[in-house]
TrEMBL record:
<dbReference type="GO" id="GO:0008483">
    <property type="term" value="F:transaminase activity"/>
</dbReference>
<dbReference type="InterPro" id="IPR004838">
    <property type="entry name" value="NHTrfase_class1_PyrdxlP-BS"/>
</dbReference>
<dbReference type="InterPro" id="IPR015421">
    <property type="entry name" value="PyrdxlP-dep_Trfase_major"/>
</dbReference>
<dbReference type="InterPro" id="IPR050596">
    <property type="entry name" value="AspAT/PAT-like"/>
</dbReference>
<dbReference type="GO" id="GO:0030170">
    <property type="term" value="F:pyridoxal phosphate binding"/>
</dbReference>
<keyword id="KW-0032">Aminotransferase</keyword>
<dbReference type="InterPro" id="IPR015422">
    <property type="entry name" value="PyrdxlP-dep_Trfase_small"/>
</dbReference>
<protein>
    <recommendedName>
        <fullName>Aminotransferase</fullName>
        <ecNumber>2.6.1.-</ecNumber>
    </recommendedName>
</protein>
<keyword id="KW-0663">Pyridoxal phosphate</keyword>
<keyword id="KW-0808">Transferase</keyword>
<feature type="domain" description="Aminotransferase class I/classII large">
    <location>
        <begin position="29"/>
        <end position="366"/>
    </location>
</feature>
<dbReference type="Pfam" id="PF00155">
    <property type="entry name" value="Aminotran_1_2"/>
</dbReference>
<dbReference type="GO" id="GO:0006520">
    <property type="term" value="P:amino acid metabolic process"/>
</dbReference>
<comment type="subunit">
    <text>Homodimer.</text>
</comment>
<dbReference type="InterPro" id="IPR015424">
    <property type="entry name" value="PyrdxlP-dep_Trfase"/>
</dbReference>
<comment type="similarity">
    <text>Belongs to the class-I pyridoxal-phosphate-dependent aminotransferase family.</text>
</comment>
<dbReference type="InterPro" id="IPR004839">
    <property type="entry name" value="Aminotransferase_I/II_large"/>
</dbReference>
């Protein structure tokens, strides 16, 4: 069966989307604010683990199929989840975890509740395996730019099986209070619904609560090493649930011979040293946010819907400038060497209102954005004969 997938738009000057990303990847001096990867991670333990494992040529062996027990254990400890209740499957990234969770939770008559803005790849998976996705508009102050328990209650029907809770939310950085998480856990239990708790950005948040603590039987937690660990290119993550929910996921694993051993060794090193480096990365991210806020505050027609953000990215609303986010992103890339993301990558309804900027990069690079942003908006307005409101 061939599934329908939205075609990605090929950026001007490139033959394909792949060519565009290859160009970005290879451009060493690029200011990387367009993907939520982490360029602040400097811990040598991760690098050493990769080197040591490759020197030992560990990679000639297959790893255990569920992942190294040490790594599974470290992930549960990191989350404070009880090993007698929860099980872990190591995957080749949160993306694989999402696919496993969604493909085993939904079927052709069940539907999903998700937010707009959100991470649209998840919704693509849900549309593929379930009946439809209710993309609830959350880009407003009234709902705090997030999928609140009230919105979830209002949108549940008899066939709802999955709630997509991206927390903190890509692209906007909103997170949930403990009370909200407890209420969402109750909703899941009352209605026999699964919460897919995507905690990819958890470690950037000031505070964070796991749904799994309050509704273990109704939660699938998706974990990534791509963000705070700075290991996006190593493609490693995990999915965590009770054994009952894990059984079908494990039966659906494609990569039955396990996940990349070097990535697993690096993940172990990252977890073992996490308390030595996490605070510095978080502090730099908060400082970088402040600098971006300064730039936004002095640029007429722009504002930050959520500040501070609890992720390593935030949204800058430019709707009152009269500019199209696609044009602003193209201008910053072509003329200022700054890669940011236009809103339509994370929202169907509000994508024309904002750009998304990631800031887990060195502060000197954020300073370039800080100094260029206002000028970029004004230059583009002049070029397009837009008279600022
Ligand atoms: C909410 C969310 N989940 C999952 C992912 C993918 O993570 P991974 O690199 O582990 O596949 C991303 C990537 O940006 C994301 O924003």
């Amino acid at each position: 069966m061939v599934f329908k997938k939205k075609e990605k738009k090929v950026p001007k000057g490139f033959n394909s989307v792949n060519e565009f990303f290859d160009y970005l990847y290879k451009k060493e001096d690029l200011i990387w604010m367009g993907q939520n990867t982490n360029h602040l991670q400097k811990v040598e333990a991760i690098e050493d683990a990769l080197i040591e494992a490759s020197h030992k040529r560990d990679y000639c062996k297959y790893p255990p199929p569920e992942g190294f027990p040490e790594l599974k254990q470290l992930i549960l400890e990191d989350l404070g989840l009880d090993e007698n209740i929860f099980d872990v499957q190591i995957t080749a990234s949160a993306t694989e975890s999402l696919y496993l969770a969604i493909s085993t939770s939904l079927y052709h008559i069940t539907n999903t509740i998700a937010s707009d803005p959100g991470y649209l790849i998840i919704n693509n998976f849900c549309n593929r395996f379930g009946n439809h996705v209710k993309e609830i508009p959350v880009y407003n102050e009234e709902h705090g730019y997030k999928l609140t328990p009230q919105l979830i209650r209002e949108n549940i029907d008899m066939e709802t099986k999955l709630i997509i809770l991206i927390d903190p939310l890509n692209p906007i950085g909103a997170t949930y209070t403990k009370e909200e998480i407890m209420e969402i856990a109750e909703i899941a239990k009352e209605n026999n619904i699964i919460v897919l708790h995507d905690i990819t950005y958890r470690d950037f948040a000031r505070e964070h609560t796991l749904v799994a603590q309050y509704a273990p039987e109704h939660t699938i937690t998706v974990y990534s090493f791509s963000k705070i660990f700075g290991m996006a290119g190593l493609r490693i993550g995990a999915v965590i649930s009770t054994p009952d929910l894990m059984r079908p996921m494990r039966a659906s694993v494609i990569n039955d011979l396990g996940t990349n051993v070097l990535s697993q060794e690096a993940a172990i090193a990252g977890l073992k040293t996490k308390d030595q480096w996490i605070d510095e990365i978080k502090q730099t991210c908060f400082k970088n946010q402040e600098l971006i806020k300064e730039a936004v505050d002095e640029t007429p027609g722009t504002f930050l819907p959520v500040y501070p953000s609890d992720a390593n990215m935030m949204v800058i609303d430019i709707s009152q400038t009269g500019l199209d986010p696609v044009d602003l992103a193209a201008y910053l890339l072509d003329e200022k060497n700054i890669f940011v993301r236009e809103g339509n990558y994370t929202s169907k309804l509000f994508g024309d209102r904002y750009i998304r900027v990631s800031y887990s990069i060195p502060t000197e690079e954020i300073m370039v954005f800080r100094n260029e942003f206002k000028d970029a908006v004004e230059t583009l307005q002049k070029r397009q004969n837009i008279i600022p409101k």
